[in-house]
TrEMBL record:
Pfam families: AAA_23 (PF13476), SbcC_Walker_B (PF13558)
Keywords of the record: Exonuclease, Hydrolase, Nuclease
GO biological process: double-strand break repair
Any one Gene Ontology molecular-function term assigned to this protein's record: ATP hydrolysis activity
Name recorded for this polypeptide: Exonuclease SbcC
PANTHER family reported for this sequence: ABC TRANSPORTER ABCH.3
Species of origin: Sphingobium yanoikuyae (Sphingomonas yanoikuyae)
InterPro entries the record matches: P-loop_NTPase, Rad50/SbcC_AAA
Length: 1235
């Protein structure tokens, strides 16, 4: 890689655009060049620009704390390592750009850009952008920022850390490397070379090997835990299983026979209970039918009363109409009375309006002379006002002239009085402050001395504060040094104690094998709990299925009985329904005949019959028409009642038949569904039973590995106890292992604290020496400044003599300016006033003469005006007594308006009177019509009421019964009919069901009864269940022994094969652990660092031969990280690197940095640009020459070297320089110079 150009804008102290072109003269021909400038000017910013353009990072920010935050003036909060902080303060945007030659020989341009929102200086900081362009064809490489950085890494061949080691030589880091102790040197070498991965590899190898060993130990423990049967024991177990199976089959058969007997007895008890219940229901239904007999007679009377309900309703409506007619007549009488009152009132209003018009006419005639007199006085008053207006302008002009003269006189007198008072005041002030005259003449010199002494006092105050701070710092530093020494002693003791505790914890902790065995046992026992829960769950499901199946079978039997009852009732209804329909048809024919006899035509024919005349139908001469009408009416009503009863019964029977058919169909569906449910539930119970047996088999299989038997009564308690014991062991071992970990952490922290306290003690001692030296310098400066202050104070005391104590003044210079300016102002004003007083006296006299003349002229016009004003007052008073002071026009208009209103009111009153008379006549006519209508309606109501009461007497029915029937309506009668029919049906149904239940009980008793019953049967069932449970348990135990032995035989062979596979797979890892593994990774890290240090020293010695042939570096045989120096000028004497001088250490660190650069650019990668930052100030002339010669020799190998330094001798020895020159505070510019 070769750097071609560096460009940028607004980065750190480099303001605006800058560019360094290494292909332009004089840099293109320079093998070595210097980057110079004072400290803080911005030299390192050039290196930052390269790293930003290539890697979006700044090397010197890499050491910043990861969580540290900085806040900019604009309010942005950035992390301490954020490269955007390089943007110059007060700038809206900036960039860094680098042209370089990549590994493929092509030229590229990498650009890093940062800006604030809208490129405003107060905008929020935005995300950075990155781009890469191939300069040959202008193609932009990469897309996103991540892709661009990856492409740059491919072209450069270095990561950011490798670039820092290979291009930006780490001479300063190797200076620290030489000075550090073993531990710090190992950490620095790991950071410089990137060898931290070796410690991670060592730890990973150790952890992997430990895991594999634990797995092997666990398998071995499982093999040892197996216990199998021999062949003889196996045969015995098989014979026991066969015998147990035969016994279980016999007990199951016996229990099945007894279960059938229990079922027969249970079913008979159920049938007997049903017979008892049906007998009770039949008795209840019969009692209800007996109680309903009076209700049939009541129903007949209600039907008769309902036949008159229409007449009763018509009477009620007629009564309402009669009442409304009477109310209307009363209302019309009220309207007539009101019309009469309104007619009387309007006639009176008409008379009053006529009188009012006459009164107003007389009043206007009387007022006419007064109106004429008022018109005369109005004309005279107008003439007087015209005369006053004629002289008012002259009067105002002379009054204004008089006022102006008086003002001028007043102003002149006031100015003269003020001038006299001011002259006297100024003369008095000048006499009292005569001493200020000398201050005014010496003001300039005195002000300069005051400024100087203020600056001296400020410096002295600052020095006093610095002295106080230094003394306090000295005390604090001394305390810190003593505390650091004490801390060093405490941490040393704590480190020893921590190591002892760690050793004790390791001795008390269990081994990995012991801990793994306990965990394996706990896992095996812990796996049994969910299996036990699963088995119990399936057993509960079997019980639930058994109970549900019993309920379904019971419901099935009840549904069959209910269907038989419904079929019986349905047959009864189907038998009675045709008979009922025939009776209804016959009743309807009889009703039609009765309707014909009572029809309108028959009634008209009977109306034409006369006594003694032959009937045209039958020829009879005697006609009992009244009795005939009564008889026909009664027959018609009876036929109608019979038809209604038969229709209701037919409807009820039809509805019941449909309902019974629907219920039979629904019951059939229920029976079919129950049959399916019983079959489904029997299958579900069988499945649940199989699952329960399978779950028990799995539980037994797993228990065989732990030595527990799930068939034992206390199995759960035994399992919980074993788990608690293993949990206690695991907790104890875990606590012991945790104690080791805690002790290791405490040991490492104690050793770290000890090292830190040693370093802090040295730093505290050096700090104390530095503070003592600074305090001595401050005291010397304070003494010199105190002498200067005393000399100035004496001079100022002389100049202020007799005026004021300048030391007590808050602002002596301000006070001096104020007093000197006041004295000069008073003196100048006093002189001007003395000169102006004679002129002011003349102005006062002239103003007084002008005022007197103006007064005479004003008095003349004022007397004329007063005469006219008196005349105006007399006329005004006379006019005010006429017409109440109102104008003639307003009075005339008012009179005309009053007369007009009176005449309009008269017309309105006349119209209202005529209308009142018309309304009275109309109201009288409406009253007469309402009276006649009320009489007609009342008479009609009385006639209808009489006929209704006659009919009630004829039928012997109370009016209240008819009223109740009308209110209740036909629905109530139909409801009662249905209720009585329901009572009859309930009795019939109860009797039929009782007969069916009695028949079912008899049929059941005729079947074969069991030999045992009652308590004897219960005792036999209990004994059979106990025998069956015992036989089943014996069978399960025998099966469990065989299954466990089968598992042991299979599992042992599998476990040994698995152990061999584990050993084969772990062989490589265990060997790797022996070579490089340990818990901290230190073994492999030390080995890798040793190789790295050997390579580094080899490369560094090749460069040190050119820089300082006298010395050669080598590793010390007594330590991994120790470096020693061979002094060839002293016959190969061995020296430590700490014995080298400052210049010699710089040459050694430079050789190490160059060696690291060569190591970092291996694998065919060529670096053609190198930069070295500072360190040359420690070299003498000869050593500096040697160093520069080596760097120039690097140019001969095709490399360009840049030296960053502020040392003057470097500037003189290197002709081509990039100068970074400050031009303002925090602002620098770049120039390339030669020579």
């Amino acid at each position: 890689m070769r750097v071609l150009a560096i460009r940028g804008r607004n980065l750190a102290s480099l303001n605006g655009d800058f560019e360094v072109d290494f292909e332009a003269e004089p840099l293109s021909d320079a093998g070595i060049f210097a980057i110079t400038g004072p400290t803080g000017a911005g030299k390192s910013t050039l290196l930052d620009a390269m790293c930003l353009a290539l890697f979006d990072a700044v090397p010197r920010l890499g050491a910043a704390p990861a969580r540290a935050r900085i806040e900019t003036v604009q309010g942005d909060e950035l992390s301490a390592g954020d490269p955007r902080a390089v943007l110059r303060h007060g700038c809206g945007e900036g960039f860094a750009e680098l042209d370089f030659v990549g590994r493929d020989g092509e030229r590229y341009r990498a650009r890093w850009t940062v800006q604030r929102a809208r490129q405003k200086t107060d905008g929020r900081m935005q995300a950075t952008r990155h781009s890469l362009t191939r300069l040959g064809d202008g193609e932009i490489l990469g897309g996103t920022k991540t892709e661009t950085l990856a492409e740059i890494h491919r072209l450069v061949g270095l990561s950011a850390e490798q670039f820092r080691r290979a291009v930006l030589l780490a001479q300063g880091d190797f200076e620290a490397f030489i000075k550090a102790d073993d531990n710090e040197r190992a950490q620095l070498l790991e950071r410089l070379t990137g060898s931290h991965i070796y410690a991670s590899l060592g730890r990973a190898a150790h952890e992997k090997a430990a895991t594999l060993r634990a797995q092997q130990q666990a398998i071995m423990g499982r093999i040892e835990a197996q216990n199998g049967l021999d062949d003889e024991a196996r045969r015995t177990a098989e014979e026991q299983q066969s015998a147990a199976k035969d016994a279980a089959d016999r007990t199951s058969a016996t229990l099945g026979e007894l279960s059938k007997a229990v079922g027969w007895e249970t079913e008979r008890a159920i049938l007997a209970d049903k017979v008892t219940a049906c007998e009770s229901a039949a008795a209840t239904a019969n009692a209800a039918r007996e109680e309903a007999i009076p209700r049939h007679e009541a129903l007949r009377l209600r039907k008769a009363a309902f036949a008159l309900a229409g007449d009763w309703t018509a009477i009620q409506e007629a009564a309402t109409l009669a009442h409304k007619a009477e109310q209307n007549a009363v209302l019309r009488q009220g309207e007539l009375d009101q019309a009469r009152e309104r007619a009387t009132q309007t006639a009176a209003d008409e008379s009053q309006a006529i009188a009012s018009v006459q009164v107003e006419t007389d009043r206007v005639a009387v007022q006419s002379p007064e109106i004429e007199e008022a018109r005369t006085l109005d004309r005279k008053l107008s003439e007087t006002r015209a005369s006053l207006d004629g002289i008012s302008d002259t009067r105002a002009t002379r009054a204004q002239a008089l006022s102006e003269c008086q003002k001028v006189e007043q102003v002149a007198g006031s100015s003269w009085s003020k001038a006299i008072a001011t002259r006297d005041d100024h003369a008095s002030w000048l006499a009292q402050n005569a001493g200020f005259a000398s201050l005014a003449t010496q003001q300039t010199e005195l002000a300069a001395e005051l400024v100087e002494i203020a600056a001296v006092n400020l410096k002295l105050s600052q020095l006093s504060g610095s002295v106080d701070g230094a003394e306090a710092s000295k005390i604090a530093a001394n305390i810190s040094w003593e505390a650091a020494k004490a801390a060093e002693e405490r941490t040393a003791a704590a480190a020893t104690s921590a190591r002892n505790i760690l050793d004790e914890a390791k001795a008390s902790a269990p081994s990995e094998v012991e801990f793994s065995v306990v965990l394996e046992k706990r896992d095996r026992l812990g796996a049994l709990s969910p299996l036990l829960v699963d088995w119990k769950h399936h057993e509960a499901q079997v019980g639930a299925c058994r109970d549900l199946l019993a309920r379904l079978r019971s419901n099935f039997g009840e549904a069959k009985v209910e269907r038989e009852d419904l079929v019986t009732r349905h047959s009864e209804v189907n038998s009675s329904l045709p008979i009922l329909r025939a009776q209804l048809q016959e009743a309807r024919r009889a009703g039609e005949l009765a309707e014909a006899a009572s029809g309108e035509a028959a009634m008209q024919l009977r109306a034409t019959l006369e006594e003694g005349q032959a009937c045209p139908v039958c020829g009879a001469t005697e006609h009992a028409l009244s009795a005939l009408d009564s008889l026909l009416g009664m027959q018609l009503r009876e036929q109608r009642d019979r038809i209604a009863d038969l229709e209701a019964s037919s409807t009820s029977e039809t509805a019941e038949e449909a309902a019974l058919a629907a219920r039979i169909q629904s019951t059939d569906k229920s029976i079919n569904g129950l049959e399916l449910d019983i079959e489904s539930q029997a299958t579900a119970m069988a499945v649940a039973n199989e699952k329960a047996q399978a779950a028990f088999a799995v539980l037994s299989e797993k228990c065989s590995l732990t030595g527990l038997d799930p068939a034992e009564p206390d199995f759960e308690i035994t399992l919980e106890s074993a788990l608690a014991t293993l949990d206690g062991q695991r907790s104890t071992m875990t606590e012991a292992r945790t104690a080791v970990t805690i002790a290791q952490v405490a040991d490492e922290k104690a050793r770290s604290d000890w090292e830190e306290s040693r370093r802090a003690s040295g730093v505290a001692a050096q700090t104390l020496r530095d503070i003592e030296q600074e305090l001595s310098s401050l005291l010397e400066r304070k003494s010199h400044i105190t002498e200067t202050r005393d000399r100035l104070a004496k001079s100022i005391d002389v100049r202020f003599s007799g005026t004021a104590d300048w030391r007590q003044l808050a602002d002596p210079i301000g006070w001096l300016d104020e007093q000197a300016g006041a004295w000069r102002t008073y003196f100048a004003d006093h002189s001007k006033i003395v000169e102006a007083i004679p002129g002011l006296e003349r102005a006062v006299a002239d103003a007084r003469a002008e005022t007197a003349a103006a007064m005479v002229r004003f008095d003349e016009i004022e007397s004329q005006a007063k005469a006219w004003e008196q005349e105006q007052i007399l006329v005004t008073n006379a006019r005010s007594r006429l017409l109440g002071g109102d104008t003639v026009e307003s009075v005339v208009a008012q009179n005309e308006a009053v007369l007009s209103q009176s005449r309009q009111a008269l017309e309105t009153a006349q119209t209202a009177a005529a209308l009142g008379r018309e309304n009275q006549a109309a109201s009288a006519a409406r009253k007469e019509a309402a009276d006649q209508e009320a009489k007609r309606v009342v008479q009609g109501h009385l006639d209808r009421q009489g006929r209704f009461h006659a009919r009630l007497a004829e039928l012997a029915i109370e009016e209240e019964a008819v009223a109740d029937a009308a209110r209740e309506g036909q629905t109530a009668i139909d409801g009662e009919v249905e209720a009585l029919a329901a009572i009859d049906r309930a009795f019939n149904n109860a009797a039929a069901v009782l007969a069916q239940r009695q028949e079912d009980l008899i049929r059941h008793d005729q079947t074969d009864p069991p030999a045992l019953s009652g308590d004897a049967l219960a005792q036999a069932v209990s004994e059979a269940k106990q025998a069956d449970e015992t036989a089943q348990k014996a069978l399960q135990d025998a099966q469990f022994v065989l299954r466990r032995d089968d598992e042991v035989r299979t599992q042992t062979s599998k476990l040994r094969a698995e152990l061999e596979r584990e050993r084969a797979a772990a062989r490589v890892w265990l060997a790797l652990d022996e070579l490089i593994g340990d818990a901290t990774g230190a073994r492999f890290r030390r080995f890798a660092q040793g190789l790295t240090l050997d390579r580094l020293l080899a490369h560094a010695n090749s460069r040190l031969t050119d820089l300082k042939p006298r010395y050669e570096l080598q590793r010390a045989p007594s330590g991994d990280m120790l470096i020693q120096v061979i002094d060839h000028d002293m016959a190969g004497e061995i020296r430590g690197v700490h014995n080298l001088s400052g210049g010699e250490r710089f040459l050694v660190s430079l050789a190490l940095a160059l060696g690291l650069a060569e190591m970092s650019t291996g694998r065919g990668l060529k670096i053609e640009s190198l930069f070295i930052d500072e360190g040359f100030g420690a070299l003498d002339g000869a050593s500096l020459g040697q160093a520069l010669s080596v760097l120039e020799h690097l140019h001969a190998t095709g490399r360009r070297v840049g030296v960053i330094s502020h040392v003057e001798e470097i500037k003189e020895r290197i002709p081509v320089k990039i100068e970074v020159t400050p031009v303002a505070r925090g602002c620098s510019e770049l120039t390339v110079v030669s020579g």
